[in-house]
What does this fold into?
Amino acid sequence: MKDWRYWLAEQRGTLLALGIFFVMFVIYTSNHPAGFTANVVQTASNKGVLLAFVAMAQTLVVITAGIDLSVGMIFTLTNCLASWLVIGTGIETAFGVVAVLGTGLLCGAINGAIVIYGRLQPIVATIATGAVFFGIALLLRPFPGGSVNEDLADALTGRLFGVVPASLVVLLVVVLVVWVPFSRSVLGRAAYAAGSSEMAAYMSGVPIRRGKFAAYALAGLLASIGGLFLTFFTYTGDAAYASGNTYTLFSIAAVVLGGVSLFGGKGSAIGAIFGALAFRTIGDLLFVFDFDPLWQPLFQGVILLIAVSLGAFALFRVRNRLEWFL
Amino acid sequence: MDGAVPLFRMEGISKRYGGVRALEKAELSVTSGSIHAILGENGAGKSTLIKVMAGVVAPDEGRMELEGSEVTFASPAAANQAGIVCIFQELSLIPELSVADNIVISDPPKRFGLIDRQAQRRIAEAALARAGAADIHPLALVKDLPLSRRQMVEIAKALARKPRILILDEATSALAAADVAKIFGVLKRLRSEGLALLYISHRMNEIAELADQCTVFRNGRNVASYKAGSKSDNEVVELMIGREYSHIFPPKPARVPAIAAPVLEARSLSWTDRLDDVSLTVGAGEVVGLGGLDGQGQRELLLAFFGVLRGLSGQILIDGKPVAIASPAAARDDRIGMALIPEDRKTEGLMLPMTVRENLSFAALDRLSRGGIIDRSAEQRLIDDMVALLAIKTAGLDIPVGALSGGNQQKVVIAKWLMRQPRIILLNDPTRGIDVGTKQELYQLMRKLADQGAAILFYSTDYDELIGCCDRVLVLYDGAVKRELVGAEITERALIASALNIHGDDTPVKQGADA
It folds into this structure.
């Protein structure tokens, strides 16, 4: 086989998600009353990148064969924090951004420490820390409110050169600065290896713990970038429990749509980004067809079910039934 | 090799697991530029020895020297650092990563702090070529490769670490003949390059072809070292014999007269490359043993009977009638009445956090319930019977089964199946890791069940048990029945010789079961 075939096989999940997104988006814009305009694309991308950041965060943890049920709450917490700190002069705003991102990193690091060094199951550990993060968010913003440096917010949610949504550019920058180095670093490979076969990785002398820790910490960072964007988008902080939970669950859906295996070791954040954008578009599709919004959860659920069922076909090839349970 | 300075030496190495001693003051010295074969039967301490060498297991006592200075290894990585690389029997490859990723996994080439993929690819290609496997594409995912190819990748991975001592633990057992020939060429070249190779294999012909030096292990000790070719196969078997007999077995009945109709029969069972044309019969009242080295298809054979394997070819007959057993639920059904005591009670036999009571009645719930409701008093009666029959020592029926000792846990697994009064009982190495007292109780029980008319198929890695418990023993090698030993033929010598697929005495070799 030629090299490109291997590349294709490796990127299959990502390309499939890209394909789903592309088709959905074409259907969406071609039926949108305003059509394919810079304005429609800008609004769609601003909504999409929020989930994309949280889905990227989820990807990092899922690669290690874990799951992070606190990403939505880190997203909410950093949103509330940003509504206090990302304000004022340029220096003050910059300090606020650093503080918000640092908080996200810290939240992720706490998750990582509990899971890796405390040996708790990821699902339990992150439910607990998620509740803690939400508790802090609620203390920060008992009621929706606060404000944000609007110049910065408008710049990052607006358009560059009148056409390119700035939020997409930020997403691209984050991919280049966070994801690409991670996926090509020894720690990133350790995270993949630990997710695929932790024992084999251990026997090969791979730095499993550091790799997993890096994955959890960076997940916190990425979720906080999402939180920051939510603030730019809404100009306020809001400790909304339902919204945090929704983002957590949608991030898992986006990750699966993006070809990232929940069993670990396989997939990429790029796939998860397309998964997130596709999932968002599917959700909005009903509006352009003038369906009752009541249908949205049902429709989204059916699409998701179909997408994840594709992944189950491998089970038919198993010849030792005990392998079903591995 | 006398005279030469050993590259690596182990002295007085001991290791215990719980009460079981795996190594007892073992010694070994390895010389550069030679291939050193390690021989020994199941549980002789070979695996523990190399795990100690490779930094996987820390010895309880003893010292290791590399080029004359003492070393200790805290982890596999530390052993690698010192130039000791081990190719384990259980593959250490990461399935979702590419071949190249796997080959450089321990120490990837870096550029500006990130993994340099071009350099990684060059290293991988070079290593694959050196392992004689240049046909494997470095970008292929390991999980997409067949087992024999994965083993070649494993060897390439070891070579990429530039070892001075390379340990191969049954490295050829998964390989096709063509690959074996290639690997032998590679190993001989490595020897001429000055590497020390440690070769663990049960294939005597391979050892004869490759090894310069041989060391035989028995009961955790090295009992003999000799120059390869200086001893006959028979002498080697003689060295491996001599397990200490520590168990007392119930008397066997006089040989059961020819069985009219076998209860369980297999005809030409084959499954992937793990089972190869296996035929056998087990009659009522008979205990038939499965022998051979570990991993020769014994486990798969039991799983095949129990309806776990898909794509099985051949026939299974119960009471002379062909049946299709599609699942464990079908196997335990009254018409078949089969029970399997699994090898790993912790994962396949018990639900550890659940209570003793729940675990005991799991397999028999359908018999104890009417209309989906469990008859509590019937359950209690049956449980009481079983606890008494097997003398299960437990603080109560409502404590988690995980709190019991290993021996009592195993009794629970057995009791749970006996509650169904099975006619056919498959046992997969049931005495592994349990105490001597419980073992003896199990031997008694097995005989008692047979006397009551059960057909028993019993796999054990302990030859002693096969000799003590079985009316007949079928020895498996490479997924095929290589030999059948009946009655007085079941000796340690015959078992070891046929497990190694050499014919240590002049008893005729039978293929398959009796006609």
Summary: DSSP finds 18 helices and 24 strands in chain B. The two ends of chain B are 50 Å apart (CA to CA).
